[in-house]
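General statements about sequence and structure are easier to judge against a single worked case. In the encoding step, the backbone of a single protein was reduced to a row of integers, each denoting a local shape. The record that follows shows the chain in one-letter code together with its fold in token form.
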Amino acid sequence: MHKIPYLVLGLGTLLLAVVALRRRLALRRRGIAVRAHCSAVHRPAQGGPARLTLRYPTPDGRTRTHRAAEGDCPPGTREGDAVEVLYDPRDPARAETVHAARRPRRRDYDLFGLMGLSLAIVLASAIG
């Protein structure tokens, strides 16, 4: 009786991790590279990494906005600088900087770890 909540939690987390990984890899595979411009740099008052606002055009003539972490942009990126962005042609609001997309695949271990933990929870609740 106490196994069911853990089974549901494990399956739900596993599903979310798989969907997030598929979306991340699909953007890297079919993403279209465009030149974005950094329109603002937001530094938290209490310190920590900055968030950059990047604006980029899409073929339909719209200008999209993407918020990126400081580590997802080339070092030293400031307001007015150009940053290359990948966006999904099926959903132009989904984007990632090329700098972040070119990271080694081991950077995806966060999702692989979450999938492994989820599988362990599912198996433990199914067996135990």
Helices lie at 3-30, 98-101, 109-127. The two ends are 11 Å apart (CA to CA).
